[in-house]
């Protein structure tokens, strides 16, 4: 992907985000940057009147935040990071700088100033490259700022106070969060939206491009130190293009000693939207003075090499219910969590640091706490908990994938090696061992619940009066369907052993029509009557003979005009995308993943016409086919 090379330059470096802001962490995590979070202890107390322009204040604060972390890590923790990123967001209105409100009155004061007016949001960013030389910290600072203009509607007193009482303004510059409720106050935004949220990602990437992809040497030599050629876009950069991509020396960059003070005068020049504080990057020279290209970092391959460690860290933290403990009591120190879950302190600290590095946790001086994503997806009862599927991945899929080499050599599933049991015996476990059954149902429920809305709304199903979800397990999709289509009656049809265990998964306190559960075997028993049959995550698991039995039965009971909805991952025609589906195939079930045209052909073969496919962007896509209406 064209954007990768810029951030890819940071892959092999120890990158530290010197910020406690969950938004900044999320913005950078979302683009795949790997970093450690070490919030800065720098107090935002610089004298504002000492700065000629508000953005200079934000840039200087960002720089001091980052320097404090670089120094602390170097001196106290004896770990010199390679790159420290600091940021500071401020709002300016009527020549006043607004930071985070200290209390509700302060929030009121800020928001009423912003009401009905246009204001500016500035984020100052500092990127500090660190080197330890003779135990001495040397730093090279690049900084810049971005301005975005935001206009608020006129805000009534009632609205202002309602918003303030929501609690949202308190940790946000200017007293609002544009990404959440605060977005409702905004009439327009001119400029980078993410800059308002706390981190100007686009400008940051351009700055990295300037740093890591300097222009060819002949250009460099003819230019002055204090102006960096602007890189307007990073679209045409690739790992292969870098002739001298090592960030080795920045002439004119300010060098700081370990106290954080400038040790040499910086040659700075302000540009329209940035004050560039670095000189040019000199390519690496070998002993003979010959220029050599820096080794390219194969970031994708490195990520794949580390992937198993990351997965296992997630699995173990989930299995130990660390995310549950952190949600209930966080922030917690490693020792407290170790006591809660009965693990070693040193092991727990390493695991928690790994989770923070992976962006699953936040680490502050107060301890570790969950990110919003961890609360939503990783706690065992989070709104869209994936806990069940994670445990299934750890306990069932991991042992299978450990035997992938044998699976590929033999072309068959490796239950005997992974679990010491044959396929049939393992299958019995699913229905006879309460523990295995519940683990499996929880895993299915995780995915079904997460994907239910997108599957249910992939097509307009309001014409149907009754639906039957075959193999619908806990009823997660059924419940979503009755919420969206109140006139639809949904039956979940699954094996008796499954139906007997569904009560734990039922949503509480819903005022929608109930879902009916009927037990039976869809290969053998009569199917309940319905206008719409649903097969979600069923077809890919079964061999062609079984698929034939099932689709023939459905086709036979489907009246003209009724339909079949299939929810599966739909592969592209080359069958290499999305990777999730292709990787799932490695489990070597007897079934298979199919492309869009294969699903279309399959449904048509059993008398369904007008087959439509919807790629949802979620974990499951949807295919809908109508039983041919024989009468014209
Ligand atoms: O619309 C939004 N505007 C601003 C924010 C958040 O506001 C804060 C700004 O504060 P600051 O730059 O001082 O950063 P801190 O949160 O204190 O973290 P540091 O440790 O980096 O000092 C920032 O979190 C923005 O994300 C917002 O969310 N929406």
UniProtKB/TrEMBL annotation:
BP GO annotations: methylation
GO function terms (MF aspect): nucleoside triphosphate diphosphatase activity; O-methyltransferase activity; protein dimerization activity
Domain O-methyltransferase dimerisation: 302-380
UniProt signal peptide: none
Keywords, comma-separated and alphabetical: Hydrolase, Methyltransferase, S-adenosyl-L-methionine, Transferase
Keyword Transferase: yes
UniProt domain O-methyltransferase C-terminal: residue ranges: 401-608
Obligatory cofactor(s): a divalent metal cation
Gene3D superfamilies: 3.90.950.10, Vaccinia Virus protein VP39, Winged helix-like DNA-binding domain superfamily/Winged helix DNA-binding domain
Classification via PROSITE patterns: SAM_OMT_II
PANTHER family membership: BIFUNCTIONAL DTTP/UTP PYROPHOSPHATASE/METHYLTRANSFERASE PROTEIN-RELATED, BIFUNCTIONAL DTTP_UTP PYROPHOSPHATASE_METHYLTRANSFERASE PROTEIN-RELATED
Subunit structure as annotated in this protein's UniProt entry: Homodimer.
Record's protein name: Acetylserotonin O-methyltransferase like
Source organism of the structure: Calidris pygmaea
Lineage, broadest ranks: Eukaryota, Metazoa, Chordata, Craniata, Vertebrata
